[in-house]
């Protein structure tokens, strides 16, 4: 079943899917289409989700926010409830004050932030899903506002759980929480050109030491690891989904010297970039 709402300007879009035999996206093939943030809820048994050609265990009754530039497919799509929306429908960065406690699930310290539902939150999501269904079928003029309000509610529920599970504290003070979130947003914007912690610390008007100390207290990852992981993630995606050479990918990711990039990649992954390119040639359909 697929429900889709398009607002009056014909640009903003919200989609809800469930019971579908196949749900997948190849970002590099879909660039001419609308770009969606996604939230996937596995209502069935544990299964495998493949994100940018890396396989992860998607546990039963877990939720996964998926960024708009990630490719994915599910082992058992029929068990997935998926919400997808674009920035024109609801922008997780700039729309309203509630965004300050929402962006974390899409711009947090991990690009695969699985969130496990306890019994209480499972009941909440089941109730929310039922209301979503009603609103998609509604003919009222306030349908746009109601669906957006439900989406915000969904994101807030997931964000609170994500903060507890990935930061260890649902009630982290706003200033400390926002520093982590803003750092991750800046990394997402600048990682192709800027690889040093000092650059991001300067954007936040903090010293690199202050940023490092902050993350050691309130995050499971060091800030330098977040920068490195984002570069490696993008490198893998470019290897798998484009025909670019190692040299071209190195330059795309801000490395002036391909040898420096190769050393960086091997240190992080234990593989040479040339090995990854050789593997992807075995799968020309990607």
Please give a handful of descriptors for the protein shown.
single chain, 9 helices, four-stranded antiparallel beta sheet, six-stranded antiparallel beta sheet, globular, alpha+beta, 286 residues, 10 strands, disordered C terminus
Largest sheet: 6 strands, antiparallel
Radius of gyration in whole Å, from Cα?
20 Å
Bin the strand percentage: 15-25%
- Got a strand count? 10
Helix content, binned percent: 40-55%
Segments where pLDDT lies below 50 for 5+ residues? 95-102, 281-286
Mean pLDDT: 86
What topology, given as strand order, has the largest sheet?
1-2-9-4-7-10
Task: Provide an overview of this structure.
This protein has nine helices and ten strands. Helices cover 43% and strands 16% of the residues. The strands form two sheets. The chain has a six-stranded antiparallel sheet with strand order 1-2-9-4-7-10, covered by helices on one side. It has a four-stranded antiparallel sheet with strand order 3-8-5-6, with no helix packed on it. The protein is globular, with a radius of gyration of 20 Å. The chain has helices at 119-137, 143-166, 174-190, 197-203, 208-218, 223-241, 246-252, 258-269, 273-280, and strands at 2-6, 13-18, 24-25, 37-42, 47-51, 54-58, 62-66, 72-74, 80-85, 115-116. The two termini are 27 Å apart. Residues 95-102 and 281-286 have low confidence and may be disordered. The protein is an alpha+beta fold and 286 residues long. Helix 1 (119-137) packs antiparallel against helix 2 (143-166) and helix 3 runs parallel beside helix 6 (223-241). The longest helix has 24 residues, at 143-166.
